[in-house]
Amino acid sequence: MASQPGTKCREFADVDPNGFETEDQVAEYFRTLVERNNLRVRTGVTVTRVTEREHARGYLVETDHSTVEADYVVSATGPFQTPNIPAIVPESSGITQIHSNSYKNPAQLDESAVLVVGAGSSGVQIAAEIQKSGKKVYLAVGPHDRPPRAYRNRDFCWWLGALGKWDLAAPPVGADHVTIAVSGAEGGHTVDFRNLAASGITLLGRANSFVDGKLQIGSDLGANIARGDDNYLSLLREADEYIERNGLDLPPEPEAHELGPDPECVSDPILELDFAEVGVSTVIWATGFGVDYSWLQVEGVLDERGYPVQQRGVTPVPGMYFLGLPWLSRRGSSFIWGVWHDAKYLADQIEIQRKYRDYEPDHNALLEAAVR
To answer: How much is the pLDDT for 336?
Structure first.
């Protein structure tokens, strides 16, 4: 979103406040931020290892260009580091498998049918684009939230702010990591899996295993669609209540509450997909990312799973911090327009620790106080 009320982000120039910035516009935003604040930023540099300095405070940050000594290190690499491809279809199957981060367009695929696994934003947009190119598409749909792209003349991101959801301090139970099905393609629209099915995409439940060339599919498709519908309708109801409570003059959208009947692929779901029989030769895994902190070789910073040990970005190891992680302090912590809360907090914590470190008592004042 080009503009978010209540944030400290500079609005993007020459972009509709309810529109989407291009890749180049986002890059220009950061260039302007660096120049305006005279920040020392080095691009094209890969950090290969961070270790504690021997017999001295601080850290050695080794890169592919040089080694930097630092008293404080903030890891702001975010949560999307390593493509996650579940070990379901073996490499020996002969099936082409790629992660969504490697997908560019339908032209890179052969003419065979395609299975897209994952019902988040990437999965649904990739599946729709491939379907429009004329290829047969199967889409495996897991549990997800399905917010409206816009409702009653306000964007979904505006509604998250107005309803206080950006600043939730903790995720709802079971929602610390939720797949969000919403599309920004062609100007943005609300995702309805019924429409995807009507376009010719065959919906499937969760991909569970692969045996003798056949994908074994969960029977959870109907439940997953229903959960997404409940999430969608609940936000519409909250929005309606907000509009009435605040006396806003926003056009009603009764049709947004109307859901069509479930398509046949939902009411009578496929539980086994024979790849050879239906002609699937490519699987695109839109299954998210994991983290890789193998370069961060400081004891006590990571847990046994390799995830940060931190409280609001502050680790138990002096001088080590994390920024940009989901739910670091609130829902918006991993977004451009929400990270400022945690950035300010960490900057304050570092400054506090600096003052403690550099503190030197005024001995004369202490002596005078003792005499008195």
So the answer is: 85
Nearest Cα residue to 323 out of 81, 75, 80, 79:
75
Q: What's the per-residue H, E or C state across 34-86?
A: HHHHCCCCCCCCCEEEEEECCCCCCEEEEECCCEEEECCEEECCCCCCEECCC
Amino acid at 278: V
Matching residue, tokens 């002609």:
279
Instruction: Please state, in angstroms and rounded to a whole number, the distance separating the CA atoms of residues 230 and 234.
Output: 6
Q: What is the pLDDT of residue 174?
A: 59
Dihedral through CA 128, CA 129, CA 133, CA 138, nearest 10? -40
CA 73, CA 63: separation in Å to the nearest integer? 14
Q: What's the CA gap between 332 and 336, in Å, rounded?
A: 8
Assign domain 42-81+291-358 to its CATH architecture: 3-Layer(bba) Sandwich (3.50)
Using the Cα atoms of residue 301, residue 307, residue 309 and residue 313 in order, give the sign of their dihedral.
positive
CA distances in angstroms from 302 to 71, 72, 211, 305, 316, listed in the order given: 19, 17, 36, 8, 10
Q: Does domain 82-289 fall into CATH 3.50.50.60?
A: yes
Question: Phi/psi at 241 (nearest 5 deg)?
Answer: -65, -40
Give the span between the Cα atoms of 266 and 94, in whole angstroms.
29
Domain with CATH 3.50.50.60 in the chain: 42-81+291-358, 82-289
pLDDT along the chain (372 residues), means of 10: 52 69 87 92 94 93 95 93 95 95 96 96 96 97 94 92 87 69 86 96 97 97 96 97 97 96 96 97 96 96 95 96 94 88 96 91 69 66
Are the CB atoms for 126 and 286 separated by under 8 Å?
Answer: yes
Contacts of 161 (CB under 8 A, 6+ apart): 4, 5, 6
Q: Tens of pLDDT along 256-294?
A: 999 999 999 999 999 999 999 999 999 999 999 999 999
Q: How many helices and strands, by DSSP H and E, does the chain display?
A: 9, 17
